[in-house]
Fold this sequence. Notes:
This protein is of the alpha/beta class. The chain has one domain (4-179): Alpha-Beta Complex (Spore Coat Polysaccharide Biosynthesis Protein SpsA, Chain A), CATH 3.90.550.10. The chain is 27% helix and 33% strand. The chain has 6 helices and 8 strands, in the order βαβαβαββαββαβα. It has helices at residues 17-24, 42-48, 62-72, 90-98, 147-152, 173-179, and strands at residues 4-10, 30-35, 52-55, 77-80, 85-87, 104-115, 118-131, 157-166. It has an 8-stranded mixed beta sheet with strand order 3-2-1-4-7-6-8-5, with helices on both faces. It is globular.
Amino acid sequence: MASITLSMIVKNEEKYLQGCLESARPFVDEIVIVDTGSTDSTIEIAKKNGANVFNFAWTGNFSEARNESLRHSTNDWILYLDADERIVDGEQMRKLVRNARAWAYTLHIRGKVNLPSGIVDQVNTYPRLFRRHPRIQFEGVVHEQIMPSIVRLGKTIESSNVVIEHLGYGESVENIIEKGR
Length: 181
């Protein structure tokens, strides 16, 4: 049976991490968390939930941190989430990897955006579930992407109906900017 690693990077995510891990844990076989310098209870929450936690000195490059999490992952498939995300239909995700035809699947990230004009609903689709392979790596300093390395390998990416609920976009623009520092 195909196995899945939940791969995450975190820093000071005590507010969101427990809920994320509770949503994903029944559907993954391993949790790998790379911490980039938390000073709150993030690491304790991760360990309490059975995560393998690795420290990584923040370089200002999100891809480097994400790729560090890939280096520590041991399963067939990688699911990557942010702490402020929740997997909505994990059983559907398990079915995808059991009957996999593709090398990666796009998931629907559903959330709200707090704009000056008000809060609006938003749905984006990104490849968030992919086979582990040494040449599949994240690229990009801030808006890290996995798709270019999958495409370069000539592998297929298919869409899925799996939904991720993104809670953090409801934050103000100022909070999001501060979190990135």
